[in-house]
Structure prediction request, 324 residues.
Amino acid sequence: IAKTLTDFEALNYIASYGDLINAFGTDLTSAKSHYIDYGISEGRSLNTFSASNYLAKYSDLSAAFGDDQTLALKHYIEYGFSEGRIDTSSSSASDSGSGESSNLTDFEALNYIASYGDLINVFGTDLISAKSHYTNYGISEGRSLTAFSATNYLAKYSDLSAAFGSDQTLALKHYIEYGFSEGRTDSSTESGSSSGGSSNLNDFEALNYIASYRDLINAFGTDLTSAKFHYTYYGKSKGLTLDDFDEWGYLASNNDLINSLGSDTTEAVKHYISFGYSQGKITNSFDAQSYLNNYADLKNAFGDNQELATKHYVEYGFNEGRIV
Prediction:
């Protein structure tokens, strides 16, 4: 569905909301995905910001860009928003309050980020984006500003307390920049690792999740962070499966891939996402049952286990010249 959004619409969508500017910049793929997964249900508009009004309001921009609205949108996202420029519409991101940061202190914003793994992955220590996210989403989602305990984090790790003393701000920054990826936690069961992590998906599971759904391929490509986030906060609750893609079947169905990738299933999944899907490659043409029926030794070894038969063909049978 995201393919139905034009690049111009995606730019306009970003420009219309300050939190999207902070989160995505001019990343059109992420913007399209966000609109489909969240924006529609949140009632967001694709064109709250007026590029034509923006050009008309500023003579330097109209002199530079003429009436090119695409360049106007890019300028607003990359420079105008942070410069405090607005379009003449009262509903632009700058003057509508859609990008407001409420009255959160920097410490509260850091604590908010540290409390949720998805925010750590998306924002790092970007406090402006965190404040905007809390105002626009966190409050309505019931998110806490203090689910992570910096005090407990310091108490749990002697190297941190030795380095930072009782400085909770430094503790939060350390957790966001290093501790989360190192697998550290505070001693609370509500820590960022458990409440905001990526459901412990490993990279291969995330790749398989993307490959299992065409809309995710279009939206994320091989962006594993976005895939883990999507599964945790959308896919899991919708009952989406993590593994509906048969990487062994994909290899067995395409002899050219066996020649180039061998039995590397991780590269096979990446290939399908990056090339195979758009090329229309077949994923399930290998007839494992016929392969078993053709060879008594395989039938004796595997019975009717088609999964093992498919794996055998990729790992050995193809190079041995066996046929289906």
